[in-house]
Sequence to fold (188 residues):
Amino acid sequence: MLPLGILSVKCLEILFESIKNNQTFKQKILIYTLSAILITPLFIPTARRLADRIEQFNNVETVKAGNREFKVTGAAVGDYKSISEDTEFLTKETPKAPIFIFSNPLYYYISDTPPLYSSNGAMADMFTDYEWKKFNREMSEKPAKYIFIEPVFLKIVKAANPAFVETLNKNYSVFSTGDRGVFYKLNE
Fold:
């Protein structure tokens, strides 16, 4: 099957070749004008989408998280706002509480807290057996004060690493629950 782009370029080539062969200036002007009138409407949807994206990009919102401010545009505004609300308690802790997140790595960035373990937990569905063993070892050596788990990741972790779920149930209790997931706090 011939791609539409190649076909349209070939048609334009034929059109311009026929224009070049016309001898009179008036005929050339007429054909160029008609071509422009016929081709221009094809670009209107693209121009409209581009204008919408430019407008969305220029609508910058400031999201506060603790003593930091983030300038955010577009669809990311909702993520930044909800994550900053979820992690508000972390910004008030001194010294910074060690955390581990089974979700979007933005939780680390917005809360200004580095990942405690060698993995950031964003790709738990792709962990190998070796990585799960390493994670369990790191967690037993240095437990996180808070663990955040998104519901989707909880299902993955339950299936892939029952030892972690057992440790979570034994050593942690639910600290807060939100639309995006659950924060667990280490029992002291």
Summary: The two ends are 67 Å apart (CA to CA). The mean pLDDT is 83. The chain has two domains: 4-58, 77-186. The CA atoms of residues 65 and 84 lie 5 Å apart.
